Amino acid sequence: MPRARGWRGSVLVLLASLLGGIVAWGQGPPLVGLGSQLRPDSANNAAMAQVTATAIDDIEPSEHNILHRPIALSDDYAHWADRSYAYGSTQWGGRAVHLGVEFVNPRDTPVYAAKAGVVVFASDDAKTLLGPRQDYYGNVVVLAHEEYSLAGLQVFTLYGHLEEVEVVAGQAVEDLDRLGRIGSTGVAIGPHLHFEVRVDDPYDFRMTRNPELWLQHYVDRGMIIGALRDADGELVYGKRISARSDTLSREVASYGGDIVNPDPVWQENFTIGDLPAGDYELVVLSDSGSVAYAETVAVEAYRTTYVEIVVAET
Ligand SMILES: [Zn+2]
Fold first, then answer.
1. From CA 28, how far away is CA 273, in angstroms rounded?
2. Considering the domain boundaries, does residue 41 fall inside one?
3. How far is the CA of 53 from the centre of ligand 1 (A)?
4. Same structural domain, 145 and 160
């Protein structure tokens, strides 16, 4: 199944044939981590998988992974996105589709600007609609940045559930200027920072993008992202995908529905961020718990490995 993407004249075309032959042409980045054997689970012999795994390096660093983490890179704080309620997930059906990421830290942990910009909102949202309803994010700061998405849309960041905001609307901020302190105002279970990336319209919660695609890569770590599709090429939502190495196992869900916007270039429906460099067995489980797909994928530090997965049965 050929997949084609064009971006500013740089053509990336990758073709994976069903049984192991990989052909790449155009200006695509080097292929990495390609396994030649498909290993459908014995309990699900009808399952078939295609994989194209590639480390993305033809997208200029200035276009993605440009934001600082909004929590200080200190041992005292969790400055990575919480995995239990990742962007696009429903916490296995238990909650609404999550359109941001959580940085779970104690109340009053300082929160910093992910990028220089101008404060467009800094107050509680009791009278202003920023989410599915008013009084959703509690005390919240929204910044407008000078950066634009690959589709030419202005980038905004949102910092929700703050104990207190420490900036005012109209104020200019620099990279990592302090914006407020972590709290649990609005619809929040315990103190944490809810962080969003939005494009084009800072007041429209349907305009979010996956913050993991915009945050800088974590120290010495990389990321797996990709699209999980059925045999008809349709995106498959809410499926368990895990990445396992000798030292860690991380499970995510593919996005929970089409309210979750993929990146306009990558068209992903899952991301597994903050992975130490190395080889991972990428596994997709069917609803019955059998292995619908398993393949070895390489992660390189400070790079994103894109994987296209097609499973016949989910
Ligand atoms: Zn949240």
1. 22
2. yes
3. 30
4. yes
The alpha helices in the chain, defined as continuous H runs, are 211-214
Residue 45 has pLDDT above 50, yes or no: no
What is the distance in A from the centroid of ligand 1 to the CA of 212? Answer: 14
Q: How sure is the predictor about 48, in pLDDT bands with cuts at 50, 70 and 90?
A: very low
CA of residue 121 to ligand 1 center, whole Å: 18
Instruction: Report the separation in Å between the CA atom of 194 and the middle of ligand 1, taken as the mean of its atom positions.
Output: 4
Span from the CA of 150 to the centroid of ligand 1 (angstroms): 25
Distance from Cα 48 to the centre of ligand 1, integer Å = 35
pLDDT tops 70 at residue 40: no
Residues 295 and 272 both lie in one domain? yes
Beta bridge partners of 302: none
With 0-12 / 13-18 / 19 or more C-beta atoms within 10 angstroms meaning exposed / middle / buried, residue 231 is middle
Residue 188 is assigned to a structural domain of this protein: yes
Domain count, the chain: 2
Q: What are the pLDDT digits (tens) for 240-260? A: 999 999 999 999 999 998 889
Q: Is the confidence at residue 38, as pLDDT, over 60? A: no
Task: State the amino acid at position 175 in one-letter form.
Answer: D
Q: Are residues 223 and 267 in the same domain?
A: yes
Instruction: Please say which residue of 185, 214, 243 terminates a domain.
Output: 214
Q: Is residue 267 very low, low, confident or very high in pLDDT (cuts 50, 70, 90)?
A: confident
Answer whether 32's CB lies under 8 Å from 279's CB: no
Query: How open is the CA angle 37-223-90, to the nearest 5 degrees?
Result: 95
Indicate the Cα dihedral angle 207, 154, 194, 67, nearest 10°.
Answer: 140
- In tens, the pLDDT along 190-212 reads 999 999 999 999 999 999 999 99
